[in-house]
Design a protein that fits this description.
mainly alpha, Arc Repressor Mutant, subunit A, Tetracycline Repressor, domain 2, 0% strand, disordered C terminus, transcription regulation, HTH-type_TetR-like_transc_reg, DNA-bd_HTH_TetR-type_CS, DNA-binding transcription factor activity
Length: 219
């Protein structure tokens, strides 16, 4: 066999393996979202993927390994999302626009990957995912504090931390409601979430960011 063909075969096998892994992770995402992590099984994931359990076990030894791989990929993508969503804000930007842009990016990610919420907020997620999520949460709070610090230079560190926790807490509470609805009702809850954050932040930072006199209300 020519040398170039010998090199090509491992590449093809690797590509097939990567496609199969992607297929299994997509199936696992569907199962975890529908049933939750605890009730999911490798048999259900294999069935969703249209493969035999034996094929699944060629790539993952158990359900936990699947969840960890899926969680790692989602957390990496989420880090990219909040890097874009929580970029420094131009002081001339209206508060409504700044909040709306950030919320839209985070909501879009969670609506595109509903399994992220199912995995990260489930009661029995694997320990490694919990640790990764805690690290993500801490970094996210730090980024929010950094944004607020630029807008609230006279606020004490304790108050700044508390405000960042409130912003993230409001978002997470609203996210659960958003994901529980679809269509026009989901959009209405997204707007309600934005309004809640704007009304909370406006007395604090409204004088430092561009302002609009009225808030849009949900239809």
């Amino acid at each position: 066999m020519p040398a170039n063909q010998e090199k090509e075969q491992p590449r093809r096998r690797q590509a097939r393996g990567e496609r199969r892994i992607a297929q299994l992770l997509e199936a696992a995402a569907a199962v975890f979202t529908t049933t939750g992590y605890t009730a999911a099984s490798t048999n259900a994931i294999a069935r969703e993927a249209g493969v035999s359990p034996g094929t699944l076990y060629q790539f993952f030894p158990n359900k936990e390994a699947i969840a960890i791989e899926l969680g790692d990929r989602l957390i990496h993508e989420m880090r990219e999302t909040y890097g874009e969503a929580l970029a420094p804000v131009d002081p001339t930007t209206p508060l409504e626009e700044a909040v709306g842009s950030a919320v839209d990016r985070f909501i879009a990610f969670n609506c595109e990957h509903p399994v992220f919420f199912a995995l990260m907020h489930g009661p029995d997620i694997p320990g490694r995912i919990a640790e990764e999520h805690d690290a993500l949460h801490a970094t996210l709070l730090s980024r929010i504090e950094g944004l607020l610090a630029a807008l609230l230079p006279d606020v004490t560190p304790a108050d700044l931390t508390r405000t960042a926790h409130m912003c993230l807490g409001l978002y997470k509470a609203g996210l659960e409601l958003v994901l529980a609805h679809e269509g026009a009702e989901r959009e209405a809850y997204v707007q309600e979430l934005k309004n809640a954050l704007i009304r909370y932040l406006d007395p604090l930072v409204g004088t430092r960011l561009g302002r609009r006199d009225t808030l849009r209300t949900a239809p």
